């Protein structure tokens, strides 16, 4: 469906305004789809992002500061997210031996198990865009270009 129909606006100032509005609308739409996908696993989009980062480090630990620097959503409250993941037993947090103010974070076997389960359904969430492989590559290249 065209953006004009989605937001019931027939005219835009120029193609740039239309593209920005379309990108914001589509990003919110995609976020909503992801929320539903991850809710079924009992986690949020941001928690999934942290688990994915930790799995990439596994078996090594990583600091909360480093996790934040790698997050897709830079506005995430990493401390709060980690607290919730610890309660769910998906990550471990231990005081860093070199710096008592810092913590070493690692993913647990339960956290890895959730990621393995979600990976089996990855095509389901990746396919939500309704694009060909070539379209997806072009879109990704254009998004990279748009960020300068």
Architecture overview:
The chain folds into two domains: 1-40, no CATH class; 43-146, Orthogonal Bundle (Arc Repressor Mutant, subunit A), CATH 1.10.10. The protein is mainly alpha-helical and 148 residues long. 61% of the residues lie in helices and 8% in strands. The chain contains eight helices and three strands, in the order αααβααββααα. A hairpin with a 7-residue loop joins strand 2 (91-95) and strand 3 (103-107). It has helices at residues 3-7, 15-39, 45-57, 64-70, 78-87, 109-120, 122-126, 133-146, and strands at 62-63, 91-95, 103-107. A three-stranded antiparallel sheet has the order 1-3-2.
Distance between the termini: 28 Å
Structure annotation, total helices: 8
In spatial order, strands of the major sheet run 1-3-2
User: Which bin fits the share of residues in helices?
Assistant: 55-70%
Number of domains: 2
CATH architecture assignment name of the largest domain: Orthogonal Bundle
Average pLDDT figure? 93
| Structure class | mainly alpha
What spatial form do the alpha-carbon principal axes imply? Answer: elongated
In short:
The chain has eight helices and three strands; from the N terminus they run αααβααββααα. The chain is mostly helical and 148 residues long. Strands 1-3-2 form a three-stranded antiparallel beta sheet.
């Amino acid at each position: 469906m065209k953006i004009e129909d989605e937001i019931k606006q027939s005219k835009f100032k120029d193609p740039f305004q239309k593209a920005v509005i379309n990108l914001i609308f589509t990003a919110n739409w995609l976020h909503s789809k992801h929320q539903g996908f991850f809710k079924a696993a009992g986690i949020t989009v941001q928690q999934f992002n942290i688990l994915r980062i930790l799995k990439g480090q596994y078996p090594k630990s990583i600091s909360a500061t480093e996790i934040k620097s790698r997050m897709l959503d830079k506005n995430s409250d990493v401390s709060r997210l980690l607290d919730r993941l610890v309660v769910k037993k998906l990550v471990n947090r231990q005081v860093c031996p070199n710096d008592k103010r810092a913590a070493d974070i690692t993913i647990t076997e339960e956290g890895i198990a959730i990621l393995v389960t979600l990976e089996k359904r990855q095509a389901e969430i990746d396919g939500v865009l309704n694009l060909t492989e070539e379209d997806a590559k072009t879109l990704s290249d254009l998004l990279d270009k748009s960020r300068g």
